[in-house]
């Protein structure tokens, strides 16, 4: 069977041998995420026809206006993960606190926790621009059989057993890693099956695309301003091309395929950056590193940051390794900005 026809389900089974604690639970967990992604995809694809556009009129713990699709996607992933009895807890961008999930017999026998950004790129929902879902999976650290605790979620990114995203774009893709490279699967909507379309995805070492919201330029640290000047100079293969979709998943996906760097630094508006360490930066960092890329906060490796809060934010520099290194070179000239 040529690689093009390998389904996600077959790939998961074939690759189960890689899983650290191989008992099939992680396979079932990824299968559940696949199922929830298909349900959300179905709604996203007809967003203009159903009452799913616009805000719900409430703000989440981030202080952001929750979009109807944020809430819908959150409900679908929470229900699917709860019903399938494979996780002992979930933390979500749309939930104030982590949610403990009891197993059928009222126990706490499951060993995985999931951290999720149910709908990434919320500002693009109403304008038909690609959005995504991001997930990160850890083995719990507290004893199985006991209720899940905050410490099960506040683990360094290096402890992730799997991470991935779904991009709801011109096509719908699920891209994930279990620490053995990064593979992308495209949904055939006619039959509702994901097929392996992008095996062994990898960031080129270099690229000529930079992704940053330049509208915040005046608020950026000097190192970022210097790097942007560097990107826009007429030297060698520069000026680079500026591309910014405003959905982390979509900007990351493009940069992984074409070569590029995504930056969401601190700014006087967002003194710690905007993106959330646990369910945006850590999973994308795991994917980046598994795909020959790099992810830092401008100074140090994202995945070595010891989390202290569920919804903490960090600056994010991610993409082709030589481009991130260039950006870090400019940040290094201002060591005081490492203390955000
Ligand atoms: O509008 P800004 O400030 O440029 O922020 C865009 C960034 O914020 C995000 O939308 C944050 O994610 P959510 O939509 O999940 O809150 C990223 O996807 C995106 O890269
Ligand atoms: Mg997000
Ligand atoms: Mg979100």
Automatic annotation (TrEMBL):
Protein known as: Fructose-1,6-bisphosphatase class 1
All residue ranges annotated as the Fructose-1-6-bisphosphatase class 1 C-terminal domain in the record: 204-331
Subcellular location: Cytoplasm
Chain ranges of the Fructose-1-6-bisphosphatase class I N-terminal domain: 7-199
Main subcellular location of this protein, as a coarse class: cytoplasm
Gene3D superfamilies linked: 3.40.190.80, Fructose-1,6-Bisphosphatase, subunit A, domain 1
Pfam families per UniProt: FBPase, FBPase_C
E.C. number(s) listed in UniProt: 3.1.3.11
Chain residues that bind Mg(2+) 1: 93, 117, 119
Alphabetical UniProt keywords: Carbohydrate metabolism, Cytoplasm, Hydrolase, Magnesium, Metal-binding
Record note on cofactor: Binds 2 magnesium ions per subunit.
């Amino acid at each position: 069977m040529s690689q093009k026809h390998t389904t996600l389900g077959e790939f998961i089974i074939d690759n189960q041998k890689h899983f650290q604690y191989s008992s099939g639970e992680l396979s079932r967990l990824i299968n559940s995420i696949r199922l929830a992604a298909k349900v959300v995809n179905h709604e996203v694809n007809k967003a203009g026809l159903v009452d799913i556009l616009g805000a719900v009129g409430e703000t989440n713990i981030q202080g952001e206006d929750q979009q109807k699709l944020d809430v819908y996607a959150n409900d679908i992933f929470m229900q699917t993960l709860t019903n399938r009895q494979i996780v002992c807890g979930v933390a979500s961008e749309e939930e104030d606190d982590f949610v403990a999930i009891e197993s059928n017999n009222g126990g706490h026998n499951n060993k995985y926790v999931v951290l999720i950004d149910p709908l990434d790129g919320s500002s693009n929902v109403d304008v038909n621009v690609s959005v995504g879902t991001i997930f990160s999976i850890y083995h719990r650290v507290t004893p199985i059989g006991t209720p899940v605790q905050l410490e099960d979620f506040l683990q360094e990114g290096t402890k992730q057993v799997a991470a991935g995203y779904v991009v709801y774009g011109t096509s719908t893709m699920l891209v994930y890693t279990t620490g053995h490279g990064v593979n992308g699967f495209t949904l055939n909507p006619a039959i509702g099956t994901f097929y392996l379309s992008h095996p062994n995805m990898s960031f080129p070492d270099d690229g000529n695309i930079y992704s940053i919201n330049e509208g915040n330029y005046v608020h950026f640290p000097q190192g970022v301003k210097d790097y942007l000047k560097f990107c826009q100079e007429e030297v060698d293969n520069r000026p680079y091309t500026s591309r910014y979709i405003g959905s982390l998943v979509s900007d990351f996906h493009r940069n992984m395929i074409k070569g590029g760097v995504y930056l969401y630094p601190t700014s006087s508006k967002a003194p710690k950056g905007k993106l959330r360490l646990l369910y945006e930066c850590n999973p994308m960092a795991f994917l980046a590193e598994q795909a020959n890329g790099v992810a830092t906060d401008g100074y140090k490796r994202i995945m070595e940051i010891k989390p202290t809060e569920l919804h903490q934010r960090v600056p994010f520099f991610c993409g082709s390794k030589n481009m991130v290194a260039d950006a870090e070179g400019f940040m290094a000239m201002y060591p005081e900005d490492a203390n955000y």
